[in-house]
Amino acid sequence: MRIAIVSAPSSRKEPPDYIKSLAKGMSVMGHYVDIVNAWTEDGMRLPGYEYIAVVTEPMSIFSGKIPQCVAKILAAGSSLVGKKSAAFVKKSGLSHNKALFNLMTAMEKEGMRVNWSDILLSEIHAEAMGKLIGA
Question: Is the pTM of this model over 0.85?
Answer without folding.
Answer: yes
